[in-house]
Amino acid sequence: MRWLKHRWESRMDSEFKYHLESLICDYIEKGMSPEEAEQRARREFGPINLAKDECRDQRPLRWLDNFLADLRYARRSLLKNPGFSTAAILTLALGIGANTAIFSVVYAVLLKPLPYEKPGQIYSVEIVMPERRAQFASIPVTVQAFVEWRKTVTAFESIGALRPWECNLTGDGEPERLGGARVSANFFSLLGVPVARGRGFAADEETPGKENVVVISDGLWRRRYGSDPNVIGRSIDINGRNHIVVGIASPALLVPTGTILHPMVSFAPQIDVWKPIAPTSEEIKNESWDHGVLVRLKPGITPEQGQQQLQASLNAFVHAQAPDVNTELIPQLVPIREIYTGKVRLRILLVFWASALLLLTACSNLTNLFLAKFASRSAEFATRIALGAGRARLLSQTLTETTLIAVIGGALGAALAKYGAALLSAYGPEDIRRLSDSHLNVRVLLFALAASLLTGLVCGSIPSWQSRPTRFRRVLVGVQTALGTVLLVSAALLLHSFVNVLGADRGYQIERVMTVDLSLFGKRYSGPDSRVGFYRELTEKVRSLPGIAAAGAISDLPATAGSTGPSRAIFYSSDTKYDTVVLARPVAMIRAVTDGYFAASGSALHAGRFFNAQETSEVAIISQSLAKRLWPQAAPSDVVGRTVRQGFVQGPQVTVVGVVEDARPGAVDRDAPYLMYRPHAQWASGPMTLVVRTALEPAAILPAVRGEIRKMDPNLPIPAVRTMKQIVYESVSQRQFQMMLTLLFAVVAVLLCAVGVYGVVSYSVARRTKDIGLRIALGAMRGDVMRWVFTEGMTPVAIGLLLGLGAAVAIARVIRTVLFGVSPNDPGALGGALLVLLLASGLACYLPARRAARLDPLAALRHD
Amino acid sequence: MLILKVAALRPIHGYGIVQRLQQMSRDALQIRQGSLYPALYRLENRGWLKAEWKQTEGGREAKFYSLTKVGRQQLEAEKEGWKRLCDAISLVLDTD
Predict the structure, then answer these.
(1) Are A301 and A155 within 8 A, CB to CB?
(2) Shortest CB distance from A45 goes to which of B34, B38, B60?
(3) Cβ A55–B41 below 8 Å, yes or no?
(4) Residue A44 is nearest to which of B33, B38, B60, comparing CB atoms?
(5) Which of A507, A430, A509 has the alpha carbon at shortest distance from A720?
(6) Contact in structure between A837 and A488 (CB atoms under 8 Å)
(7) How far is CA A39 from CA A23, A44, A75, A357, A407, in A?
(8) Within 13 Å, how many C-alpha atoms sit on residue A252's CB side?
(9) CA-to-CA distance for A827 and A805, rounded, in angstroms?
(10) Angular region, A388: left φ>0, alpha ψ -120 to 50, beta rest
(11) How many angstroms separate the Cα of A798 from the Cα of each of A478, A745, A841?
(12) Which pLDDT score is estimated for A629?
């Protein structure tokens, strides 16, 4: 740069020189003496330096020159005040870092397009049954409806179905329990994610007898088969049956897991095996509302048209089958994006807004710092303006300085965000899909850059407008306090909610209870007696181990199952006509339990008795809310002994022998489902969860329990043993995630507030040293001085607090859905936030106040 | 406009422009010669003039200015404008 400028200058010089010399020559030729000629020439030429200056203003890269000069100046000024620079850069790095890290999550989870072909055309179908709306907002689809739709509906390019499938993988190596799914043959092509190797399913593989083929996940292929391409075509043993591996799914395949597709369809947390559905004519008649359905709209057809076709087809078909059931089922198309983001969107966006508030707090802190800095340089600015510097030049210089700080802070923030994003994706809740994709990419970095430049410009230009900086700094302190209050109150409400959720009464114990998911499949367990015998023997053996208080098993653990698993309509034994009453009867989730289950889970009995080891007649224990729903007037003790029928009006009479406390899901985010417990001998489920209550810490007993299971069946996969506490903590992990981050941001915001208060108060004390000294000399007591300083410092804080509290209560009303057991104006949260902020800002005032009170009046009066 | 006019004839250096202006206006236009240069630089900056360093007849290096395409258009436009102004003024003056 410098040589360029140098060259430019020297050329201008020689041009001027040439002109003058030519002029002089001319005059000499006209007969003047050289001296005279030179004088004449210079007079005609005019002041050379003025002309040069005017030329310099025309220099093409003039702005760059100015900018570089500003930059040099800014660098010097930063290095001269390392304290100020560090404070400013750190403040900003925290704000930008937090914001950018959260933005990377927002991008990965909410904004990034789903890895499907034209994902906007894919929808999930669920059904609203108006009569059951109070109990289930919507229900999944029967395989029957799916088959019918595929035959009659034309609005879609393809219609696919999927349902959970539990797999025990045995043979070659350690038996393993895997998450699987039964899917229609077009599943992979519907999503537009073809298998990576081998082939997908052929349409005729949906026929019973031909369905024993599987596609395995890329992860399973690498992990268990060492990426061996020859695994394609091989037969593997799943659930005691041979299946041919026909393909390996793409590593990028994203499929619904857990209950994200529908709260009543529960997939494993990870899917490793896909097998075609192959409904037998028997199964097609079975009315199990347990399938997820995905559709891809034809181009040019609206979701409404698709929905109408589905509705017409479904109802025509249902009415033909059951003419007396008077209902209109309403299928609904839910965009596939909604499946992945719907439930977490609010939490993530709230965290993002919290980080934005933190950035705002950081900005006002930064503006405050700049105001102080520029105030101390006001004399310098005045001198320069007096000497003829343009205001635009001054502004561009201060802006360069603030932007330099902003960019350095932003870069540091981006570095922080890189680690932050890595931490978030590693330790964030596993049930937020695609959270692990959070990392810095171009978009995220652009976001950070834009945020820092904007911050630099805003924070840098505010000080130069301000004619009354001291007053404005107090306003900023108020703003900061208000922002801090909002964050702190939100964090406190979330924390209180979190504590409430952890401590909530779920209807079962979570301390010292461990669980093991087991699944019996294959020839050995094909008869119900073998399954019943297995679990009876296992629970007895485990019970006899030292340190075990109780042991039992249940088919679907209430903490995780929610409304998934088998369900049946419950009829009064007086009901006679199915079609006319079915919609008026409650649907209960059926849970098979062994006799030790209730003792192990610690569920409270309201009336009647628990199951005995041997039940002679058909019996059931029902949950309290189901009892209330069936017999609203009866006390629990009256319910005991009454009979119901399960599933059909002709079904066998089942006697209610007990009423137990409702069992709510681990996250307590939904109401307890109606539950009907049946003895395992009468509902011989294969998959069961062993529930063991221990006298000691569960971890100590673990090897012994494993050993017992191994002894009984070495081929049975034993997945990770989890304590009930783990399960509950995992189920509230999204809540925890939101709470922790908001709390972190709130703490940082409060620190920034304290720094802001401290800065303003100590500046004003320093400026008025003489004044204070004089007052002390005239007899003011030290307490008076302290009080003055405090009043001055705390007034903006108090105003900010009040405004912040108001805003926080308003915001809390909006975010009510993420709170639990806490009212938006929870006195604990409000009071706690108030106390913390008052303490922090009080301390920030106290330090300069004490300095003021200890002033030596003589020294103070000599202060310049 | 005058500078453009002068530079339109052939590439010319600053001193030459002053000479030509004085010569063409028969010494009626006397400018402070130093103030020519900021104007030249501005015109160059706007892209109406382009400059190159060439040898003069006396064998010295000098900066020669010549008109660019844009500059030529600009000159035409300004000439047009000036003529219209002159016409208008003379119209007013000549009306009795």
Answers:
(1) yes
(2) B34
(3) yes
(4) B33
(5) A430
(6) yes
(7) 11, 9, 46, 70, 54
(8) 10
(9) 11
(10) left
(11) 8, 21, 10
(12) 93
pLDDT, tens digit, for every residue of B32-66? Answer: 777 778 777 888 877 788 877 877 777 777 778 88
Answer for the pair A549, A691: CB distance below 8 angstroms, yes or no. Answer: no
Mean pLDDT of A374-396: 76
In this structure, what DSSP letter does residue A793 have?
A: H
Report CA Rg, chain A. Answer: 38
Cross-strand partners of A797: none
Domains within chain B, CATH numbers bracketed: 2-94 (1.10.10.10)
Amino acid identity, position A229: P
With tokens 């020189």, the residue in question is A17
Instruction: Return the number of other C-beta atoms located less than 10 Å from residue A612's C-beta.
Output: 11
Residues A319-335: b if buried by 16+ CB within 10 A, e if exposed: eeeeeebeeebbbbbbb
Token pair recorded at residue B87: 């016409």
Alpha-helical (H) ranges within A58-192 are: 62-80, 82-105, 143-152, 187-191
Question: Can you tell me whether residue A389 is helix, strand or coil?
Answer: coil
Contact B38 A54 (CB under 8 A): yes
CB A435 within 8 A of CB A737: no
* Contacts with B38 from chain A: Cβ below 8 Å: 51, 54-55, 57-58
Q: Could you state, in order of their start, the residue ranges of all structural domains in chain A? A: 2-60, 130-328, 343-502+733-862, 521-715
pLDDT-derived band at A197, boundaries 50, 70, 90? very high
CB A92 within 8 A of CB A406: yes
Query: In this structure, which amino acid lies at residue B30?
Result: Q
State the average pLDDT for chain A: 87
Packing angle, helices A378-386 and A336-376, rounded to 10? 70
A834, two tokens: 């108030």
Q: Which two tokens stand for residue A177?
A: 């329990």
| Alpha helix segments (H runs only) across A430-514 | 442-465, 469-503
- Distance CA(A274)–CA(A161), nearest Å, equals 12
pLDDT reading at B14 higher than 80: no
Q: How many other CB atoms are found less than 10 A from the CB of residue B84?
A: 10
Instruction: Say if CB A649 and CB A585 are below 8 A apart.
Output: no
Which tokens in the block code for residue A738? 């939101």
Confidence (pLDDT) at A1: 61
- In chain B, residues 4-63 whose CB comes closer than 8 Å to chain A: 13-15, 18, 32-35, 37-38, 41-42, 44-45, 53, 60-63
pTM: 0.79
Q: What digits encode the pLDDT tens for the residues A775-809?
A: 888 888 888 888 888 888 889 999 999 999 999 98
Q: Which long-range contacts (CB under 8 A, 24 or more apart) does A323-328 make?
A: A323/A579, A324/A577, A324/A579, A324/A580, A325/A579, A325/A582, A325/A583, A326/A583, A327/A129, A327/A130, A327/A131, A327/A583, A328/A130
Q: Which amino acid is at A490?
A: S
CB contact under 8 A, A19 and B14: yes
